From TrEMBL:
It comes from Paracoccus shanxieyensis. Residues 22-85 form the GST N-terminal domain. CDD domains: GST_C_8, GST_N_GTT1_like. Belongs to the GST superfamily. SUPFAM superfamilies: GST C-terminal domain-like, Thioredoxin-like. This is Glutathione S-transferase family protein.
Length: 209
């Protein structure tokens, strides 16, 4: 059975957004059983750093193999389970491309805005990053016109990454000018696998509290 490592506790604002959600979601889409193990948010052990040199989560253990970074874990699962990746070589490359684009192009300005607005409360930093984020959102809105999914004619791991990052944008109150992105986010997160993964993560942190 797969083992997903997440935190034992997070502040309220992080509940429902910790990145182990992405891995839980993928497992539910593929029908893969998993167990959860917890690590401390503040008191990370040498064993944790041995598996994740930056002390972050999630991590995935599959037998003797330990993997960190949500994108790498999703690619690993996608290569092994047809529910998460298309069969054709061209479509697989497109899914990989859009997964990386979600992580490298959309997530950085979204997370920087979240940091400036929610944690640092830094209006100057917010003013710098907000135009950058909206440039990216406008470009993505154009791409998604006429598409149900981001990378292919079916759901892939790229949709997990893209929709989850758009949830952050929505939480920041910045998705309203982009009805296509909002419709895509709502459509992808309406999937039963996402709803189950979210409920499980929230229950995990509620039990810890």
């Amino acid at each position: 059975m797969l083992t997903i490592t997440t935190y034992d506790w997070v502040p309220d604002m992080a509940k429902g957004y910790v990145r182990d959600l992405r891995i839980r979601w993928a497992c539910h889409e593929a029908g893969l059983p998993y167990r959860i193990e917890s690590t401390s948010l503040s008191g990370k052990t040498p064993q944790h750093f041995a598996r994740q040199p930056f002390g972050q989560v999630p991590m995935l253990r599959d037998g003797d193999l330990s993997i960190f970074e949500s994108g790498a874990i999703l690619l690993y699962l996608g290569e092994r389970h047809p529910a998460l990746m298309p069969e054709g070589a061209a479509d697989r490359v497109k899914a990989q491309q859009w997964l990386i684009a979600a992580l490298n192009t959309l997530e950085p300005p979204a997370m920087m805005l979240a940091m400036a607005r929610w944690i640092k409360q830094d209006p100057a930093a917010e003013g710098i990053v907000l135009p950058w984020l909206h440039d990216r959102l406008g470009q993505l809105e154009t791409v998604l016109q006429g598409r149900e999914f981001i990378a292919a004619d079916r759901f892939t791991v790229a949709d997990i990454l893209m929709a989850d990052i758009l949830r952050i944008v929505d939480g920041l109150g910045e998705i309203a000018p982009y009805p296509g992105l909002k419709a895509y986010q709502d459509r992808i997160t309406a999937r039963p696998a996402f709803q189950q993964a979210l409920a499980e993560q929230l229950a995990h942190f509620a039990q810890a509290a």
